[in-house]
Amino acid sequence: MPSINETRIIFPYEFKRGTSASKTARNINEAFGENLFSLATAKRWLKKFKEGDESLENEERGRPDSVVDNEELKRVVEVNPRQTVREIAGALEVSKSSVSRHLQQIEKTKKLDQWISHELTEKQKICRLETCSSLLLRNKNDPFLDRIVTCDEKWILYDNRKRNGQWLDKNEDPK
């Protein structure tokens, strides 16, 4: 039994003879075996020839080539390395997943900026120590802490470090 690609050559022949799609499908199936080509396939090929396309090759299918130019992406990232993937995708008018995939291709990774400490300086610590010491001394002379009403409050240090990230090469350190 011949392959589908080998039997496609019959379609231009039947088209030039003016045979209908149903008769073309029936002729091919009678000669080469049942259900080799359906009526829909015959209609599609004859329509293609009628439109002037006499190529017997299949049309390209699948995922289209990416529209993200890696050089353009690199320029956009280098202009502002602190952009999010969403902002870059909006600027290039592509999907976020495409931007993420191409950022990996150009070997850019999101790294957090260096931490700038907002903790107490030595001077601030000394000032707090002096204030607490003076309050304790004052309490010895005139007990005032007994008059403070608390409602079982707990004081917990909440360290909410918000750090920005930036796109850098894999081996590059954050600034």
Automatic annotation (TrEMBL):
<protein>
    <submittedName>
        <fullName>Histone-lysine N-methyltransferase SETMAR (inferred by orthology to a human protein)</fullName>
    </submittedName>
</protein>
<dbReference type="GO" id="GO:0003697">
    <property type="term" value="F:single-stranded DNA binding"/>
</dbReference>
<dbReference type="Pfam" id="PF01022">
    <property type="entry name" value="HTH_5"/>
</dbReference>
<dbReference type="GO" id="GO:0031297">
    <property type="term" value="P:replication fork processing"/>
</dbReference>
<dbReference type="GO" id="GO:0044774">
    <property type="term" value="P:mitotic DNA integrity checkpoint signaling"/>
</dbReference>
<dbReference type="GO" id="GO:0015074">
    <property type="term" value="P:DNA integration"/>
</dbReference>
<dbReference type="GO" id="GO:0000014">
    <property type="term" value="F:single-stranded DNA endodeoxyribonuclease activity"/>
</dbReference>
<dbReference type="GO" id="GO:0044547">
    <property type="term" value="F:DNA topoisomerase binding"/>
</dbReference>
<dbReference type="GO" id="GO:0046975">
    <property type="term" value="F:histone H3K36 methyltransferase activity"/>
</dbReference>
<dbReference type="GO" id="GO:0006303">
    <property type="term" value="P:double-strand break repair via nonhomologous end joining"/>
</dbReference>
<dbReference type="InterPro" id="IPR052709">
    <property type="entry name" value="Transposase-MT_Hybrid"/>
</dbReference>
<dbReference type="InterPro" id="IPR036397">
    <property type="entry name" value="RNaseH_sf"/>
</dbReference>
<dbReference type="GO" id="GO:0042800">
    <property type="term" value="F:histone H3K4 methyltransferase activity"/>
</dbReference>
<dbReference type="GO" id="GO:0000793">
    <property type="term" value="C:condensed chromosome"/>
</dbReference>
<dbReference type="GO" id="GO:0005634">
    <property type="term" value="C:nucleus"/>
</dbReference>
<dbReference type="InterPro" id="IPR001845">
    <property type="entry name" value="HTH_ArsR_DNA-bd_dom"/>
</dbReference>
<dbReference type="InterPro" id="IPR041426">
    <property type="entry name" value="Mos1_HTH"/>
</dbReference>
<dbReference type="InterPro" id="IPR036388">
    <property type="entry name" value="WH-like_DNA-bd_sf"/>
</dbReference>
<dbReference type="GO" id="GO:0003700">
    <property type="term" value="F:DNA-binding transcription factor activity"/>
</dbReference>
<feature type="domain" description="Mos1 transposase HTH">
    <location>
        <begin position="8"/>
        <end position="53"/>
    </location>
</feature>
<dbReference type="Pfam" id="PF17906">
    <property type="entry name" value="HTH_48"/>
</dbReference>
<dbReference type="GO" id="GO:0035861">
    <property type="term" value="C:site of double-strand break"/>
</dbReference>
<feature type="domain" description="HTH arsR-type">
    <location>
        <begin position="83"/>
        <end position="108"/>
    </location>
</feature>
<dbReference type="InterPro" id="IPR036390">
    <property type="entry name" value="WH_DNA-bd_sf"/>
</dbReference>
<dbReference type="GO" id="GO:0003690">
    <property type="term" value="F:double-stranded DNA binding"/>
</dbReference>
<dbReference type="GO" id="GO:0000729">
    <property type="term" value="P:DNA double-strand break processing"/>
</dbReference>
